Backbone:
């Protein structure tokens, strides 16, 4: 049984003055409530081509996560700050999508949903893109039989930045669900950064020669950073949205809808494993 409050732990990997990585922890207290059935919106758009997909379904009570009901008769559209509007089509099981629309970093976007006679709206701004400078796969000096991935980039100075990292091996996503990797620049604003992810966090031990490893550095906003933190903590599987979503996680939807509408700027970089070395930061 969940307690009334869930303590969320935020782990930050910080590069300080020439290479010292330090873990920093924040605590967020969130009261969870039972949620009567209501509309749940899962809306993530990005600068990756054909990434615009919005899912609609109905929630159930938080303590009884059963019987997810897709909403297939809704009307969904997205407009941008340039005055363009795009109507999304319902393809399958309440998933609405559109082609020939690629959002851009820095752009403002508004989602409009009509379902069961109620109009819902949410707005978001896509964060500016932060690029990966280099990727290094080496041996973990503390666990010589285990690999780790080092993601090196420069955090922009003067603005809050929030990151999610996804790792793919030969096209398959490794750190989904309860392995959501989230980072903040709270203590590293404007610095060179190394994010290190050990292989055990990816449910593997090592990469093999000729494996293709792709890393996505995903720039998210503060609302989604907090949202992912909460859902990672309160769900065994760590799914971003479940029918059991609590009634009051942070979101930007009106009229009592659950879920989120967010724009992500994604930078991808891939390497092919050729060999392995041991290094220390």
Residues:
């Amino acid at each position: 049984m969940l307690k009334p409050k869930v303590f969320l732990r935020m782990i930050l990997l910080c590069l300080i003055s020439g290479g010292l990585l330090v873990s920093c922890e924040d605590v967020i207290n969130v009261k969870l409530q039972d949620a009567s059935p209501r509309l749940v919106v899962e809306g993530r758009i990005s600068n990756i081509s054909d990434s615009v997909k919005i899912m609609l379904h109905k929630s159930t009570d938080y303590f009884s996560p059963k019987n997810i009901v897709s909403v297939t008769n809704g009307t969904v559209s997205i407009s941008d700050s340039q005055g363009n509007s795009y109507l999304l089509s319902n393809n399958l099981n309440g998933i609405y999508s559109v082609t020939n629309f690629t959002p851009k970093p820095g752009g403002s976007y508004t989602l409009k949903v009509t379902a069961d006679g109620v109009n819902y709206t949410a707005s978001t701004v896509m964060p500016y893109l932060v690029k990966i400078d280099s990727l290094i796969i080496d041996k973990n000096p503390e666990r010589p039989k285990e690999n780790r991935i080092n993601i090196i980039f420069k955090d922009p100075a003067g603005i809050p930045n929030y990151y999610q990292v996804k790792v793919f091996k030969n096209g398959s996503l490794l750190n989904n669900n309860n392995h959501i990797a989230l980072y903040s620049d709270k203590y590293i604003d404007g610095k060179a950064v190394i994010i290190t992810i050990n292989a055990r966090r990816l449910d593997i031990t090592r990469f093999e020669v000729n494996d293709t490893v792709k890393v996505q550095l995903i720039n998210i906003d503060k609302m989604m950073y907090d949202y992912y933190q909460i859902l990672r903590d309160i769900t065994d599987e760590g799914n971003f949205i479940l029918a059991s979503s609590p009634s009051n996680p942070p979101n930007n939807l009106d009229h009592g809808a659950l879920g989120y509408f967010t724009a992500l700027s994604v930078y991808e970089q891939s390497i092919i494993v050729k060999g392995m070395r041991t290094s220390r930061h």
In short: The first helix runs from residue 222 to 234. The radius of gyration is 20 Å. The mean pLDDT is 81. The chain has one helix and 18 strands.
